[in-house]
Amino acid sequence: MSWFTAHSLTIVTFFPLLGAVVIAFLRRDRTSSVRWVALLCSLLTFLMTVWLYFGFDSHRTGMQFEEFRIWMVLPPVNYHLGVDGLSMLLILLTGLLTPLSVLVSWSSITHRTKEFFLFLLALETGMIGVFAALDLVLFFVFWEVMLIPMYFLIGIWGHERRVYAAVKFILYTMTGSALMLTGILYLYNLTGTFDLPRVLDYLTATSLLSPQAERWLFLAFFVAFAIKVPLFPFHTWLPDAHVEAPTAGSVILAGVLLKMGTYGMLRFCLPLFPGASRAFAPVVCALAIIGIIYGALVAMVQPDLKKLVAYSSVAHLGFCVLGIFVFNAQGMEGSIYQMFSHGVSTGALFMLVGMLYDRRHTRLISEFGGLATSVPVYSTFFLIVALSSLGLPMLNGFVGEFLIIVGSYHSGALYAALAAAGVVLAAVYLLWMYQRVFYGDITNEKNRTLPDCNLREKLILTVVVVVIVAMGVYPQPFLRRMDRSVAFIMQRVERRTLLFTERAPAGHLGGGQ
Amino acid sequence: MMTLQTADMVRILPEIVLSIFGILVMVLEPFVPAGQKKLLGWMALLGVLAGGTATVRTSFEPGMAFRGSIAADGFSVYFIYLFLLVAGLVILGSMDYLERDHAQHGEFYALVLLGTVGMCFMAASTDLIMIFLGLEISSISTYILAGFRRADRLSNEAALKYFLLGSFATAFFLYGIAFVYGLTGTTNLLGASARLMEPSQWSTFARVALVLMFVGLAFKLSTVPFQIWTPDVYQGAPAPVTAFLSVGPKAAAFAVLLRLFLGSFASAGSVTFWILWISAALTMCLGNLAAIWQTNVKRLLAYSSIAHAGYILVGVAAGRSDGISAVMFYLVAYALMNVGAFILVAYLSGAGERLVQIEDYTGLALKRPGVAACLAVLFLSLAGFPTTAGFLAKFYVFRAAIHSHLVGLTVLALLNSVVSVYYYLRIVVAMYMREGKTETAGAVLPWPVRTALAVSVLGIFYLGLAPKLPLGLSTLSALPLPK
Q1: Which listed residue, of A124, A177, A298, B276, carries a Cα 20 to 30 Å from B241's Cα?
Q2: Closest CA to B310 of B324, B327, B293, B322
Q3: In chain B, how many domains are there?
Q4: pLDDT tens sequence across A205-225
């Protein structure tokens, strides 16, 4: 037992990969065993993440379930894993979304089934690894490795322009990674270690970094994360990737992969380069708000359901970035909460669009109308999820957005006002879309005989709705687990800022209460 | 005058053993009946193994041989093992290829062994004349090998081109040696470097000598602007030969480059540095940008190997012991990836090498999933994805570069490797994401090829995941160099 507790994070991280290896040895034509192995493996992983989540001590600062082994001696790269409140929540999200993705793909993936589930499970290992890694190189390894299964998921099982979308996705992300790797190597050259906690200690204890170097390093990391989020000018890969990906791919992409960007900002940019974060905060907040408004406006005019959801992601992730860069506890907690709830809600929206696509093989809004009478159960689920995505109180989306807006009010009323406008716009595009698709008369005869949700789909959607309602009604247990981590990051940002103001009183530091 | 000492002989034992086996294969060739020529391949492989054993013996007898013209040190032993690995893989990968293309002749294996001898001498020599002899031995063998498909026009063109430009390049190198001799009165590296210790001793002529020697080596390294021959030769030569000459002579030239530029003539300082910096930058950019437009897999790999030479030069430009060990680690990774890729290309191309376009790989993943997976691993490793050798190799080189404050060059190299992802993935796209063509590549692989492939793919993962041992070796072997 003690062996298990000592290696719990390793087990959670690599268990899905074990499933992938098992699938690799199954025969190609045994598709149903492939599916069952994938489902069982991802469910067990989910149970383990839940177990970890409840084992997580919310009263302790710092990393938990830590593991440390030497991987390479020179340069000293270590296998260092650990989670805090932030990464724990995201690992839980990954654990939740993967079995749902397996279920969503249950009957829609009929072609090269074995490879599909193999890549899906390998992807889960990569994602959990990104959130659990505490060594810069290990983090980078997971960050890059995870691209390959995603690339195949989009490129093989996607729609018409899948190859274009897959290559665009991988090239955009890798450009960011190239800059980040330079930053990592530069930090190593300065501190002599790749170990994140030790790099942090060095940087806070000494003034190794000149403000100039700190800005460059911040940018090297930030651009990589901004591409992943994606923040406004870097977002063009996202609609392509989302629209072309198979349903499970979109769910994972929106649910987890985008969060890696915001996670990276919280984990690396803010604590490592607090001075530069402050300095760039006005620009970042402006870009985030542009993203919120722009994403919403573009979503409004999309004729394609999936594209609409994709652009809504740009807007929602804008909220997350805004919450991070207003530098206060509410904003940051709201941002983390929003990461989780966007993962669930937008993931669910993609699942719903995918179910519709399976039935009609189109996603054009104009093809539908009056679905509420022909598929009532489906329509009800869709409504709840859409309402959660637009931030209706008592559902999950509200908590995060509310906290972010309150937080941004502290650093500027204008930020809060513009962000709130984004919430209104979200209501506009989601409700307008809902009206066109589900209400009115049935204009297309094909829609009259659509089958309603089957048992599997009801199961998936019920799970989602339970999470949505639970998170909206009683967010306390989720928020309390991140308190310490947020306080820790805030403390880093503030203490280091003091040092900075002492040395460089010239006022580049912007923002701030 | 000169007495042969046992220690001297032991220090060149690997070269002796390889030469004996090479000559033996040549002599036995007429006595082996026509259908049995493969036996000669096995014999050559035995020669490689014997050479490996001999190298163990050599490594217990470190020191200089033949009055300071050969060094048996960690550096040379490391490179000899690298060349033996390459030779072994190439021989394993050629036997059935030659059978298929009706080119099964014993000379092939003899030439591979003798070429390897030349490379070993290049890495181990500490006398410019000896280095030149090694260069010539290895060059002449590879010229013949490049034209081994005698009936094929492209192969003949490749051999001629390689020969003409190669001899031109060796002439440059020789000219550089002449200058060094004129300035210092010796061709021995120890002696010559003793007379060029101080930066003030680097007269214009000494710098010219350095540049001339660099030009000579640059042809073998195929760095810009001396890369013109590379795509044509790599395309025209039989694929297993391309595997050999894209790795062996290149690694040997890097060994010489390290020994001369970072060892003996390190005091030249800024001249060396800027030559290396500029050729690294140009080579990476040109290799990658040209590779994007290729439709022939062999040409694509040719440009990719140019690009890789650029990355390796970044490590050389970084200098210091961590730059040297990064370069040495990179060369092993590069050898495994490139030899593996070319051997697979050789087999997928079918008789007469007809199927070498990217479209010919369409749908390979459905037809032959195992082969496609191996090729995908090799290409992802060339692109530098983590968990493969390609990533760690780049990682070490760039770490060394940042250590020497080459931030600009590192960013350039990393952005270049993003570009390279695009063209490496084109083949993955063809294999996995497009479907069906009537005639596609897809022969069944004979087991020696499978062995060679297994060695390179497993080696790639080994170097990428648990590099403790190889990394330690390259760090230790880099030690004897800087003086």
Answers
A1: B276
A2: B327
A3: 1
A4: 777 788 888 899 999 999 999
